[in-house]
Amino acid sequence: MKNQSISNNLDWISVIIYFILVVLGWLNIYSSSLSSIEGESSIFDVSQIYGKQFLFILFTIPIIFSVMAIDAKFYEKYAIIIFAISLLSLAGLFVAGKTIAGQRCWYAIGSFTLQPSEFAKAATALALAKYLSDVQVNLKDFNRQVQALMIIGLPVMLILPQPDPGSALIYSVFILVLYREGLPAWYIWTGFITILLFVLALILKPIVLILLSLMVIIFVYYRSRFVDRNWILSAIIFVLISGFVFSVDYVFHNVFKQHHRDRFNILLGKEVDMKGVGYNTNQSEIAIGSGGWFGKGYLEGTQTKGGFVPEQHTDYIFTTVGEEWGFLGSIFIIILFVSLFIRIIYLAERQKTKFSRVYGYCVAGILFIHFFVNIAMVIGIFPTIGVPLPFFSYGGSGLWGFTILLFIFLKMDANKVNEW
Amino acid sequence: MRKVLFPTVIFIATILIVARIFYLQIIDDSFKLASDNNAIKIKYDYPERGYIYDRYGKLLVANQPSYDIMVIPKDIKELDTTEFCSLLNITKEDFLKKIAKAKIYSPRLPSVFLPQLNKLEYAAFQEKQRKFQGFYIQKRSLRDYQVNYGANVFGFITQVNDNIIKKNKYYNSGDLIGKQGVEESYEEILRGIKGVKYIQKDKYNREIGSYKEGKYDTVAVQGKDIHLTIDAELQKYGEELMVNKRGGIVAIEPKTGEILALVTAPSYDPAILVGRQRSKNYTMLYNDSIAKPLYDRGLLAEYTPGSPFKILTGLVALQEGVIDENTTFFCRHGFSYAPGRFMKCHCHGGALQLHRGIYESCNTYFSSSYMATINKYKKPADGVDVWSNHLKSFGLGQFMGYDLPTGRKGKIPTSKTYKRMYPGWGWSSKTIVSNAIGQGEVLMTPIQLANMIATVSNKGYYYTPHIIKSIKGQMIDKKYRTKHVTTVDKKYFDPVISGLFDVYNFGTAHGLNVEGIDICGKTGTAENFAKINGKRVKLQDHSIFVAFAPKDNPKIAIAVFVENGYWGARWAGPITSLMIEKYIKRKITRKDLEKRMLEGSLQGEYNKYYAKPIIDTLIKKDIVVPEVIAADANKESKKEEEVTVPENKTE
User: Fold this and answer.
1) Is the pTM of this model over 0.80?
2) Which CATH architecture has domain B232-643?
3) Nearest CA to CA, how far is B132 from chain A (Å)?
4) For FRET with B616, which of A4, B147, B499, B501 sits at 20 to 30 Å CA-CA?
5) What one-character DSSP code corresponds to residue A109?
6) Distance CA A150, CA B360 (A)
């Protein structure tokens, strides 16, 4: 019998990366919030947000120990119940939620607030893993596909009206997990083409785009060796594309509110009002861009000190890294994140049960899409949307949500010696 | 295959992010700049400009405080334009125009909204300044001229233009810089170094303290005072003598090369280029393309030197050994230098030696000497080059290296000049004989003329003329303490000087003697032409005079140039003589001559060739040019003619 103690089987690489990211995040929060106050203050001062973040970090220790103490089978066994509780907590927001900045996504207990959507991601991952690990489930089957999408769709439907489009967007990453588990490729293709068409529809005139797609379809129809020459299908696809392109155009101009349009226009370079709607993106680009190779040095960022970047301690925390630590610092952080994702995927692939493999994929996927959307937004290649940078951004719910998400998987991984 | 998709997505996304960050941080510089504009405010502390004194320590140029209203367009908030405009006495259109201009320069950076307020305007504005967000006051120091002359010597200070800002990193928009005169050539010494303070701002544009604890801040360095070699009294007197005339006076102390006076006429009161009227006045001076008050004739005007050049012709001929003191040429009131070619001469004729040749300014004598010099060599080209090199040792045909920002090389022809002028043509000494008498291809500036006569007075050496006497705490440049020796030996100067001395006794300038001072001098009259309405018109000759005194221990060497002044002894001669008397005796005994020179005007002459009468731009406070002069031009000049000293024209 091998040594069964958790510390021997725990994947320390993931834990160390996690720990480095959390500490670096805290240091950057300190730098980004020091600016507005006179003089220097202790990083442990709990009246300030960096002091609070320190308390949040301290509190992850009992969380981690609890997660590790619970039997690995518990998560599989009670996945559906956890999911149900999570959905209830989301639904409860409509009754007892606290509205902050127009978003009703917090429960308030005294001065302390909790954001259930941060925990719902882990719960959804558990539910999806539980559903897919059922031997009956074959994703080639259309009904199964619908059921799997339902699991993802339920929390999304509860989160969207809060409104919290950022959190809702996160759930799209589960498609990648489903594909790994057998979802037909055309889902991915359709998704990819839809995104491509959407972006092109914003740039090109609808009629131009439709003519272009017609040319591509005809080309594929006659030249492709992989697709059967089905003219009816081709015609349907063309009609669908045309309809989509027109509706994007219509939705963009008639359904979207001005601030939605602006967020896209900034990326497309159409918007020039850098004092108004473009302010966030412009300021964060300036802050990062002024970092150069080596940055201005920790606590020396002029943009950071001047408080030019809004929401710098939460969604825009990466600007502090960019400005003060420069290109090399940014790359270091990116490498840490990517290493963690790859490590988790590697661990997921070596799981012995389908449940823990799917869950591992979900963990990697959730962390990755947060990372990508957040940084892409900060550097101006993605529309402004409120998504935190995992382990880095300020906030207790977020930090604990990601910690629970990650450590449940690490517990499963540590426990794999007991599976056979 | 299904395992590969997710890692691939991660890979592509990472590449995308890294590429974008690389672009933002490494490739595109604009963010760095934007960041600095965003977060760091620079405050300047302008030191006081150094004072300017004359050679005896008389204060000429001091400073007065001035206040510029600066604006940062993006900071303007809820402004009561009416109150603002009435406070500063500007119109609303003005206001909008100025704001628009400032915005074009930069919405974030400060630019000058209204320059050079006086103390009263400043006080009124300061009282209400807190009401006007986005505006603030920048204190600067402006020139306070203690004298109303010497504008060309001092130059002026002005706001830097965009070209300078681009070329020289020191200057920012709204900074002041010296232009022309010593303000330009000693700009860095006079101005000192401005202090810089970097201040960290927050997004509300509030100052939140010193940037990096003042690590990059610098302290202002005071400008240094300078003493000029100018004799203020002589300078003033020279300018007064040149009123209503055009031309220049350059006086040099031969033993040192110090410039005692540098006069150009017409000139202006330096004070008109200070304060809010500055740009209006400057435009007026700048646009006067005929009288050119901003053009320093003493340094820039290249004239044919005329007869004073004969001094050099004689010296070179002596050095080359083609003549000596006793060599005799015979003048038949002219000189037939080639078949059918005759050069007229105004001397008394007969057999002449060097001595009488000089004081009677005989064309025949010097043309013959010159031809002998050139013909000494087999090829005329070699002769010309030998002659040319001798002249260059007097500082001619090249930039002299003095410490004023403008100048001209003048022109001394070489064999190359003639090969270019007469390609494939057998030119000889005959062809170029007019060089002998300072016509031909020879051009000199008044300062070169003055330096030439100073060199003669020193018997063969000179110091590069300079205007700086001393800079507080440091030696003047070594090049002004280096002796330049001519290629003409000392012994050849004595006979020439004795001839120049008798110019005053028997020659072209007799009657201009100053009692008790032995002056050596030489008149000159130079033909000149101008293109008016496309036609080449011969204008009235220029009046030229060079002199030094006293003969045995020269203290002053001087060149006077009066444009269209008929002949040497008519205007330039008397002015020279008065200047010498003023410098050496410090007072004038010949009041009649002085009065005639002070009041005499050549405006009639200047207006003759132009359809409309032109009044020279003389904006001196105490000098008003009456309109009548233009109308009475002819009458005036006739009257003048009756009282001139009789003299011989050189050509």
Assistant:
1) no
2) 3-Layer(aba) Sandwich (3.40)
3) 21
4) B147
5) E
6) 121
